[in-house]
């Protein structure tokens, strides 16, 4: 027995050595062009704005903590949006990823290299994880290597290496979870299963959910395949469940805070499966056409080596060879056909099929077995392979006929035919007694190399200019840090740093769509963030004001849509933007500095921004507030604050009983050109995207010295039907222009599931109008089709400089005198003559606690998105402190989980008489 174990270990080491060598060759063949062309793995979209930036920032936080541990680890960061929890904000990307912590081995000057190195390391570990699992499934030798490369270089990996690197992690975890299940079903230790559950739950809760569902499916199929009596199922189920729970407990220190962040985030589940019972026809066409090419649709990512064409028909004629794989493949095919399954796998939200990383695992094992038995397939088997080749080759040929010729569809077909031809020729030589060892070795090598060559070509076709040219969407290597540094042409360095004596935020204009998480890098207090998990309370505030730039994961994207009062209440003293955007500055912001050159920017300043925290006794309950139009809401926030009526601490305050100055402006609406756009009842029919809707004001004097808004209500869009099987994108832009200002609001496509919201209303801020001569506002819809439009309202908010300055002065007179301002601690003193509420611009979170004069007080939510605390008349010593919700209890449960794991380890060690797992 010991000799067999030593032999197995020796073979495993040899296979890993061969894998490592071939991996380096394959990676060099695929990504060598990146080095020659100086291209990075950083995607110019999310890669630049999220993945690399957050990796660099998070590793920097840990390096700072290691160097200065007495200061504690930073749990709240004022540079993330309006301020946010670090663990919940970054948990989706970096907090639990074990590879991220290897970045601590590199200095900050090498973070970009570390980012790339760790992506390559992840891909390498994907192959290793497959090999360990496949060995358990009795796959070895060259067959093991073939299957490994089919799995490791499937399109799911190629796509996410440069698109979403952390999406690679489930391809490491799932084979190891399967290995853990195999050990349980074979009455071996369940500790590996518990450990992998822990790491995967810590790494990313979103994929952990998918992994949980998938591993349950896998376990059920394997249980019955192994022929274990049904009466014993509860014994195995309990063993798996108990160790699953141990793994979850060990991950709790990260998992619990991240789940809390998700539950209070701005994301919305929406309609189950987005209201679809079936996918659009285009999806099904692409599902069949994309099996062997590097393309995807609705995150159904396939893209395999051509040899898979020969494996699939064998599922029908040699089911016993492949065990449960054919049955699981049938189930997964059914799941791909209906949106309901996609929705379930996506957390009951939009039906994205991001779970398709499981399919390469099954096909990798199947290809490995095809190769292992390459000289044993009978005539019927080979005929089935040929039929499979004809079927998929016919699909590829049909695609070639219907569209331009593509090597991407041709090469997998050629590679598959080469494999089949060699197997057929070898079988005939075997029948004639002419099969030699030399021939077998040559055939084996050619088949092996054809598979590796196929996966290399697939990746090259995806990346290279001769194919889809995805490298064009990647940043040049070594430029990311410079781009962060130069985003404002470094003019922001002229703005003084925030201190306890001078707390403010830096804002943007509505035209600064390209600014995402840049304030994190610049270490400045700003407003916008672009993260998958964003504070849901901030989103509530943005929705109340109907910000035109609002998105689910970017509630205050590119500032506050140039809304003057909204910027002031959030403490935006400075706005930095490109010089060309000067006309979009809110009223009262004066330019104080300009840079020169191609990337010229300016700084504008106001003296009307509100203090960080101030006492206010004028209140309106939320129900009354929601009856106001969005412009009136903003106007009221310059006077008082809003809160829920059931807050007992506000019942004794002064209810708002004054009038607001916002007024509606009389106007008429007509089409500029009836041939391009027509108006019928409550519908606008657009025949040409150049068509314009003209809103003509009856008296232009009504809007002078006022801020002007256009409010479109009751909106919906039905695009003109497609003349092909391709679906029509239901997203569109609406553009409103007046006096040199143009504002655009985007309605996302219904199939942009993660970010889709239906904008029944659109509010366009056209800025301050001094002495306007024009009386015509133009509205332009981007796409031809039918637009429901129930009502158009024009609002004017008069600007009374003297009255407004009095309101600002009153807030300044009642502001909190801040003595401490840190990431997780704010202290100060305030004196007021009557009971009031301290209104702050701290984003609301249950993690913030407050004390007044040494006694803990309960915080309340004011203005829908921020923290307030009740104050009694007199002088108050106020202290705020922050602690990540569920971090402490998560830490305690993690310790309990580690204890339970240790007990199980000792128990197993005693039972088996062996060391280790």
From TrEMBL:
<dbReference type="Pfam" id="PF09586">
    <property type="entry name" value="YfhO"/>
</dbReference>
<feature type="transmembrane region" description="Helical">
    <location>
        <begin position="324"/>
        <end position="342"/>
    </location>
</feature>
<feature type="transmembrane region" description="Helical">
    <location>
        <begin position="166"/>
        <end position="185"/>
    </location>
</feature>
<keyword id="KW-0472">Membrane</keyword>
<feature type="transmembrane region" description="Helical">
    <location>
        <begin position="297"/>
        <end position="317"/>
    </location>
</feature>
<feature type="transmembrane region" description="Helical">
    <location>
        <begin position="16"/>
        <end position="36"/>
    </location>
</feature>
<keyword id="KW-0812">Transmembrane</keyword>
<feature type="transmembrane region" description="Helical">
    <location>
        <begin position="191"/>
        <end position="221"/>
    </location>
</feature>
<feature type="transmembrane region" description="Helical">
    <location>
        <begin position="241"/>
        <end position="263"/>
    </location>
</feature>
<feature type="transmembrane region" description="Helical">
    <location>
        <begin position="139"/>
        <end position="159"/>
    </location>
</feature>
<feature type="transmembrane region" description="Helical">
    <location>
        <begin position="886"/>
        <end position="906"/>
    </location>
</feature>
<feature type="transmembrane region" description="Helical">
    <location>
        <begin position="113"/>
        <end position="133"/>
    </location>
</feature>
<feature type="transmembrane region" description="Helical">
    <location>
        <begin position="439"/>
        <end position="457"/>
    </location>
</feature>
<feature type="transmembrane region" description="Helical">
    <location>
        <begin position="383"/>
        <end position="401"/>
    </location>
</feature>
<keyword id="KW-1133">Transmembrane helix</keyword>
<dbReference type="InterPro" id="IPR018580">
    <property type="entry name" value="Uncharacterised_YfhO"/>
</dbReference>
<feature type="transmembrane region" description="Helical">
    <location>
        <begin position="354"/>
        <end position="371"/>
    </location>
</feature>
<protein>
    <submittedName>
        <fullName>Uncharacterized membrane protein YfhO</fullName>
    </submittedName>
</protein>
<feature type="transmembrane region" description="Helical">
    <location>
        <begin position="407"/>
        <end position="427"/>
    </location>
</feature>
